[in-house]
Amino acid sequence: MRPLLRPLTHHLHHLRSRPRPLPSLFQKTNHALTRLHTSYASLPPLIRLPLSTFLTLLSYAPILWFLQTHILQLMLVTGPSMYPFLNPDIDTSLRKDAVLVRMWRAAEDVRRGDVVVFRSPVHPGTLAVKRVVALEGDSVVPAPPSSGPPYPVRGEQEVSLGHVWVEGEYPGHSRGSYDSNSYGAVSRSLILGKVIAVVWPWSRRSWISADDWRGNDRVRERRLGEGMHIVV
Hints:
Layout: H1 2-16, H2 25-41, H3 45-59, H4 61-70, E1 72-76, E2 98-102, E3 115-119, E4 127-134, E5 139-140, E6 157-158, E7 163-167, H5 180-183, E8 186-187, E9 191-200, E10 206-207, E11 219-220
């Protein structure tokens, strides 16, 4: 019987020496979550409650990001280029206007008089806020500067297809208004949002509408049936 038992004993030893299968990813994850829950439950209430609130808010982060990027965004206006419409106290106070910006399809329904936020065509990393004074097909006479050398853009300009003419509102364009008078019409693709309300300071809270704009006498609007210049 000795020759018969030797293979069987060797086979049993081989089975005992085989490595055990590694736990699955699900088992590892479940084990880690169980330990985490146990650790969380053992925390004092003074720590557990704030941590729970933080984790709950963190779970809403993707939704808030989507809303801020594609729907509505709160922005702080810096600089004097839209004075006195925005930041009217810039000469006497450090207080800045906070505005509500509609991001959803802002470039698709732009009207004359809209205040828009766009990427600067000369400084792409900078956001600018200006008023749209002319649309594609309109003719614009660039504003003369109140002092200093003339603007680079001279003579009557026709706004080409897919572009808008934007300007700041500081009187005389003499301070801080770097706009279409300097770099020409702006592509609609650069428009990120439309300013729809001033929300701070509280005393100046109000809705912003293109209907409240009085127009610009340097702009000749394109009439129905007139041709349009197309940039290729």
